[in-house]
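Q: What would this complex look like in 3D?
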Amino acid sequence: MYDINKVNTHIVPVRFTYHSPKTLEEALELLSRYRGEARVLMGGTDLLVKMKMRALEPSHIISLRKVRELDYIEFDDQGVRIGAGTRLRTIEKSEEIRERFPALWEAVRVIGSVQIRNMGTLGGNLCNASPAADTAPPLIVYGAEAVIVGPRGERRVRVEEFFKGPGETVLEPDELLREVFIPYVDDAGSVFLRLTRTSMDIAKISIAVAAWFRDAEITDCRIALGAVAPTPIRIPRAEEFLRGRRISMETLDQAGRIVSEDIKPITDARSTAWYRRAVARVLTRDAFTIAWHRFESRRAG
Amino acid sequence: MEIEFTLNGVRKRVQVEPNELLLNVLREKLYMTGTKYGCGIGECGACTVLLDGEPVLSCLVLAADVDGREVTTIEGLARGEELDEVQKAFVEEGAVQCGFCTPGFIITAKSLLMENPNPSEEEVREYIKGNLCRCTGYMNIVKAILRAAGVIPQTP
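A: Here is my prediction, written as structure tokens for the whole assembly.
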């Protein structure tokens, strides 16, 4: 933890040079110039807190507030592209996101408070790389991709492979997350669930499921969890187990048992490893039950 | 560095350091002490102000990032001696005890009512989740916001 004598949440007790580029190109130039010494600032709800705690002491801050080209939600024929600088509140207010990507909408809606969602961005939530980042499990089950830009051009990484550890991503120091692309999965039943101590808290555990059915048979599914390992994770063994099986309490309970075995939770301020394993089973069951109902009502509707 | 922004309708020019926060500039450089410093890490909502019309936490906004934008604080709501509807409702419902959280609550409530003029009690409670009050138990705050919305009639 932090040294309490160094903590002053009244001020930012770190001296840095402030940069406010207006374009993505300028931002990338600055990142290359101060390679490794700079941090990118979006909403500030994570970065500034860490700086107040002296957990991070960058000598350059590159604020992307004026980079307007990072703020958009665009639907095309393949999916939706969300700019990394799009505020969580904007995503929450999008009826189309709510309709077509309900698990993402459910995740965004429970992040922090209205104030936090007015400040925080999708890119910030991902790049902060908290194992509990609420937007990660839904993006993983939707098969979303992170579009990364840097001096060597553009590359695409599946959100599933974007995280390397707590606070660590595949981004090189001179690269930026530009957008998140989510392909349409309109035929899936999907959901996001999480448990917290109080409503405005970071998740003890979170889960997202996307599933496809033929009658009561699970033809395909994806399961991702947050806050139960160093990064958000998928549970391939449970997905494999469920493929081709009929949905029933027993089947889901067995899948839940696999999930509970395959996660790697720790005991921390928010919960214990034992509890996380125990509720992972229940959450798996609940998530699939909701996903199935949603799949059915979509087909009916 | 120098920043220029609109504070409660008035253009302001201030010299700030890169690591200064909007909250500190408001309180210590512009003497607008209505906005309060509570937790400093985005948990309590006491420092809520409107930035370009939307509620944000001024303890986590760099002053430099406010350049060219519009800020509304609690001081900007009343018109002279005439209190804003939300302020009146807080007085009438006794939604204030120690008063420290009140400016943040009123700014948040103002934003809610601009977005949704007829909120349900549930919507009110959901919206004010990011504002903590350690005195009132929230009952009268919720009532006050509903009263300001006209859901609960004004006292004759």
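A: To summarize the key features: Chain A touches chain B through 31 residues (CB under 8 Å). The first strand of chain A starts at residue 17 and ends at 19.
Q: Very helpful, thank you.
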